[in-house]
Amino acid sequence: VFILGIETSCDETSASVVQDGRIVLSNVIASQADIHKRFGGVVPEVASRRHVENITLTIEEALREAGKTLSDIQAIAVTYGPGLVGALLVGVAAAKAISYARGIPLIGVHHIAGHIYANRLVTELEFPLIALVVSGGHTELVWMKEHGHYEILGETRDDAAGEAYDKVARALQLPYPGGPHIDRLAHEGTAAAIPLPRAWLEPGSYDFSFSGLKSAVLNTLHNASQRGETINPADVAASFQDSVTEVLVEKTTRAVKEFGAQQVLLAGGVAANRGLRERLAKRCQEEGIPLVIPPLSLCTDNAAMIAAAGYISYQKGKFASLDLNGVPGLPLS
Ligand code: ATP
Ligand code: MG
Ligand code: FE
What we know:
Layout: E1 2-7, E2 12-19, E3 23-31, H1 33-37, H2 44-66, E4 75-81, H3 85-102, E5 106-110, H4 111-117, E6 129-134, E7 139-144, E8 151-155, H5 161-171, H6 179-186, H7 211-226, H8 233-259, E9 263-267, H9 274-287, E10 291-292, H10 296-299, H11 304-316
Parallel strand pairs: 1-4, 4-5, 6-9, 9-10
Antiparallel strand pairs: 1-2, 2-3, 6-7, 7-8
The chain binds adenosine-5'-triphosphate, magnesium ion and fe (iii) ion (FE).
């Protein structure tokens, strides 16, 4: 079964052909990061217009790279939420048009389900499992008993992990998106240099909070500049990353033990973070629990993960009708 995946929820226009939900034949990503960089963040109206300009070529390129034509495709899987509504609509409209024109089923995919299923492009999933989802807009621990079933054990009460990375990066005057820059700097600094808080919240809670940490970093920078002192940005990055990854990894490990997971998945753009990958790998090894982490190219937004998640709906015969709409606040469970 060949599924064409389409992703336009934020600032990446992406199309991909995936075979049987497991084998990536192509995964074309047109990133708009360079355009949004000068605004320091994604400008929704600009993003929608760019998606419109890029979508047709991106789909054609994905088919060409896969060595397929539309007549080889059995279904279209598209992200219909959450995300920027104007951006989502471009992908949804393109998917509906192809579905209607070719008479093949349309599948609506939740963007975060896509991030989780990026892991199935690496290896087969073993249930029950825990997925740690860390992205630009989400931070959650997800419990999965079986394919396509999601239960949120805990989530962020304020900023998402990626959002915190990007805000701290901006305070350090690093370019957007700042996550990768902090990651790089963190490896040159000392984590113990600046004492920063850890948001454990109430005992037993699987929720997260990053806004207090972000404020602590901003205060540290502000106070230093008031006193005319300089702080090594690498130390700030290392101390910030240490706080974020400690809480993420410890809560994930606790959930694994409490619920008895067979596997841990790391998902979302922040899964590209080296500090997080290393720390989680070490902890999972100590606990003897198998960990799956997607390659860097499948961590940030891409359509292969959408096609992989869509394959589960395809097998269950769960199809969308042609009135499918973009849903900016679509819930996962
Ligand atoms: P969501 O998936 O929640 O809708 P999104 O699609 O905008 O949000 P992703 O594309 O999944 O987010 O991830 C982008 C985020 O990942 C950005 O905040 C970016 O800074 C962060 N990120 C990417 N690489 C790294 C890294 N190496 N270290 C830390 N953060 C990173
Ligand atoms: Mg992006
Ligand atoms: Fe994403």
